[in-house]
Amino acid sequence: MLHEVVGNNFEVSRVALYDGAQYSDEFLRLNPNHAVPVLEITWDNGTVQRVIESGAIVAFLADAYPAAGLAPTPAPSPERADYLQMLHFGSTWMDMMLWQVRIHEHVLPADQRDDRTIARYRHKFTTEAEPQVAERLARTPFICGDRFTAADCVVGHSVIWARGYGLCRDDVFKAYVGRLAQRPAFAAAFADAREFEKQVPQDRELVRRFTG
Ligand SMILES: N[C@@H](CCC(=O)N[C@@H](CS)C(=O)NCC(=O)O)C(=O)O
Q1: For the segment 29-64, what is each residue's pLDDT rounded down to a tens digit?
Q2: Contact by Cβ (8 Å): 59, 71
Q3: What's the rounded Cα separation, in Å, for the pair 32 and 103?
Q4: Mean pLDDT, the chain, as a whole number?
Q5: Are 14 and 22 in contact (CB under 8 A)?
């Protein structure tokens, strides 16, 4: 989303999650939930503010840079309501199910993993979330219509995440990801994606400190 609105004109600090860097006192002062992402904003008067929820970060950036045209104007409208719904559907509902799969398949200590939880959320995602997204993408190229919006940053991310778990296999999702991948901001954001190691090795600090 930052690449979409300001190109490369921002600074990135990588957080070594598998080493447990998010549990350091320094990081907990930024985000007591010990999680990424964190957006740090420096306002014109020098005040520094942090935003620690991905849905809020994406929605804020779209509104902060209206020239990018990534959100219907904040004035109440059917388009604005639908856009907010899908942005938050991606950042809460889809994310919640994928997160359960993630932690029980890749993060938790082996003796805390639960196959029933994995099966429950894989089933819920496939039978409830996927059809809603597929139905929209069968009608329009992007999640809220003919134009790419910030909601596609969130839902698109969730679809790519799901495909990494063998979900969202229908051609409609493949074509959607193909459309997203044509965007220069997408290429910039995912340039280092291959460095990501899905399974957290059991001896890493994250496995010991993870709170769920
Ligand atoms: N609700 C938050 C969730 C953020 C979140 O769960 N981040 C994960 C990675 S995707 C994290 O940093 N977890 C590290 C930990 O809990 O130790 C958001 O959407 O921004």
Answers
A1: 999 999 999 999 999 999 999 999 999 999 999 999
A2: yes
A3: 20
A4: 97
A5: no
d(CA 210, CA 28): 14
Q: Which atom of ligand 1 is nearest to the CA of 15?
A: 12
Domains and CATH numbers, the chain: 2-69 (3.40.30.10), 78-193 (1.20.1050.10)
Condensed to tens digits (0 to 9), the pLDDT of residues 134-160 reads 999 999 999 999 999 999 999 999 999
> Tokens 């779209």 sit at which residue?
62
- Phi and psi, residue 48, nearest 5°: -110, 130
Residue 144 and residue 86 in contact, taking contact as beta carbons nearer than 8 Å: yes
CB of 103 sitting under 6 A from ligand 1: no
- Distance from C-alpha of 53 to C-alpha of 65, rounded to nearest angstrom: 18
Residue nearest ligand 1's atom 15 by CA? 35
